């Protein structure tokens, strides 16, 4: 029973269906009928003009988005637990040509204007010091916590006040929106670019980079090709994304995953290390307890010596969730 | 009737089937059962130890392979019509951190030891001059021509003699092998790394980087992730590749494409600009003739003012090929 | 008797004097009194607002200047004999993060709107092709030839019409101005940035990057430090440059060098491969003739099998020039 | 009375003399008589084979040295107060093509095997995590403290055990050796490369990169030119360095600076924030106290809100040092 990650879950049947429907040859790269429909689809979803590029992975989405906001001699300010810092093998350094990540603190892997200021304000406008060019936050955060619209707004105001770009890593943006019960636009707020994830939510290999500033998107079209991310059969990536947006499948899938996490959280509320707002559950446990769970057939990651991480996905099976819930309660 | 490119052709049914069979969640990235089978499969195919990494595109395959052979202060020697020079948006400059491409001549987009020497030999061992670190050739070439094993061997000898790495861009390696009627190993010769293409030959979005030196592959595993090319549902890329290798589907598909090109070539032999050895036909024609062909429903690329390019794929339909053949003969 | 290069000539006494006068400790980097005087000095010289940064070498000057005009995914168009292409060890690839050099033709190592168009115009606005972002020309050219103001103006018009930046490598700008007998401003024309060379003209290790667009200079101040080119005792670089500008020493020195080259050119006019307009003489000669000259004590570079290059400097000694002139005439 | 930094102090008369003696034209770049003497000079000094390259700045020295030890996908482990992290404008990111700096703790800006292990050991051999490739320490440290030979040896053993390269930033290496009273070789220990600083110790603009592995130096010769750091009149850099080594001027100058710092330290021992072992004094003081000192004519840097930094140089004047000593005692 898999609770290791949502990143290797099955592909949703509607995604398969849309991909196969796209089989007939069309124009290569992003010249096909489906890819050309993305801007319109997301503009409708967000209620404002969007320029949208597909790529296969979240790392590529994050780094290409940031490449529009950060010069090689600049820096991105992000949480010290941010995916771009911890899990992308230095990809920002590659895509941004050596730009730095400056690390901010904050509970639940969420930054605040205060923790951002603690990083940004001591930096003198002095050529010896790397200057911040943009802020990147993760919605939902790496600890499965969600920025509320007013929190995003406060960070956006901070960014504007300091002349910084503002990017959102939305690998689990769907889970955040499902939790907030608001619109996609309200959950994103006044950002410049969003990495809108689908792979963890029922897709196969397609994420959307959503630019709310069309000018920024232009250079990234060149950079995407230059990074080897312009697939020639791009219609299959567009098909996945459109299938997820259509009929709000992205929200429906996220709700399933979030609900499963809530069930698990409810089983051992006193053990939770972070509020469970999306589809991740971090809970305190001993090595012996982890062993006991694994002996019952549950797969998951250790989180240091005294904790573990459970992740639920769109394809969570009720009986698995119930079984794990009981096991947690019984620890 | 599409003769524009093989890069947007349909996906072969066996590939779809293999992908869907891989749907059940497995370990993420390349830890799944299928990805872990790649080294063995290719080692069997080539009759020597291989280390194999999947990526989604030929550009990523070429550039990651070259990153194992070329330092940032070095250069790749390639034909001046090479895909890495002409069509990859400067991706080698990105992946190799500013290394140069040094351009060699040669008929049919094929280099020879003589044309390579004309580039390499005038370079003094002087820090002011960028030094060559590797050679890259394309099999089949950008003009649809195939290096014979003895030609590859001569280039390999040149590379060894000069202390240079040797990479082969095999976006249409299958077409080359089908033409030669030899083994994969004979067609590849003594190279260090091969970009083995599947997308143009019935795949959806998966190419194999085949290293014949396991040490070189090690750093590239890090570089692949760093470039955002390590897909979390990598099992679907491995599935495509294994489906293509199984039962020699790769060869079967390439034979179909090559045969269709041969039919077209035979229709207007006096117009051919290059020998037709793979699945591309370059032929002289006027703008009026191109217009006439398009009026009959044929899609293809112009090739400068006085020529055109036709590309056939694994899904070439006999009636389309026959129709175009008649149209060419009737020009 | 040295005619190898002007790049290793002695340092002018006025430069030494200015350096020693700057010995007393002042603010580090470019915060000292002399460095802060550069903008004003060059603004007066060019008759328009300048922002000026010192660096130690022409390669750093060229590449930092270009970094303000060219994005990593773009290209510089330059002559195929340009110093940035031939002699800088791939420095543009390093500083521009993999941007390409696109090579144009032209007599005497000079490009023209026609030869530039031959490179630029075939490039489609297609993400597969590297797009030009700037033009770089060398004044005087690598063959010792000088762009006349109307030639620069025509290239500037071409650049503006295509939306391209325009950089001038002025390693021998002084020699060009001395030849033209015009103002510095007329010789530079409507460029965005100039690498104004002093090392070949009596300096020790200081060149000026002159930006005619202050905004562009801002980022380059960060990039200069990031490249390790912000010397802490920068006052000694500023001192060199100011000493060269003061009393038009730069022009005086260049006139001496140019005059010496003219004497040599006059000795064998029928052998000249290029007009001798600055301080370089390229002349046809056999290996035996070169040997004969060297036997008489003259040092210089071969230029391929059938030619040689002579370079004169500000410290050319009349008796050496006369001796070589006689020897050339006597070949 | 300047106590701001040693980086803008005057140039030692012996250095001026050596530079002027090098004025006569010699071979350009590092082909001159003096540059060719460096390997031998340093091999004698360190009692083992060295390959030595000059550059103008410590930032260039550090980053070029590290470029021989760290691949673009790797990382350097250094103290979180290290100059390469704090004061070089992201230069390591530029020179190492996006490699990361991983930050270790330690008193007095010195790392230990324990603090290094705290950074290195949690890193799994997993492609998602940036792997350490080298360690860099600063001798003397950024807080003016000196690694004793046994401390360097322990770090070297740690590096060897983990397969990591080992670099020493010796911007104030002379001050460290002067403090230790040992040989240069003992103070450097078993490192791969040393940035041996001269600019802060009486030089004008020349530092030595000393490689104890000749193979590593080879690629760096290309990289130095590619970074625009190969000055054409390199003889003037070699002259500075040789003048400093000759007769142990480097040690003599460092002793003067260290002695001055010791005088200052003795004036207010209870205020010291770090042991004063080289030529830097960090001491606790209020804003009012700093103001009082400045009112008496002393220039220095604040160090946060509650401290200040004093730096002494080879040209420290006794009367200034005495005056400041009295002022400190009288606070």
UniProtKB/TrEMBL annotation, chains A, B, C, D:
Residues 2-284 form the Aromatic amino acid beta-eliminating lyase/threonine aldolase domain. InterPro entries: ArAA_b-elim_lyase/Thr_aldolase, PyrdxlP-dep_Trfase, PyrdxlP-dep_Trfase_major, PyrdxlP-dep_Trfase_small. Keywords: Pyridoxal phosphate. Pfam families: Beta_elim_lyase. Its cofactor is pyridoxal 5'-phosphate. It comes from the Bacteria. SUPFAM superfamilies: PLP-dependent transferases. Homotetramer. Belongs to the threonine aldolase family. This is L-threonine aldolase. It comes from Novosphingobium panipatense. The lineage of its organism: Bacteria, Pseudomonadati, Pseudomonadota, Alphaproteobacteria, Sphingomonadales.
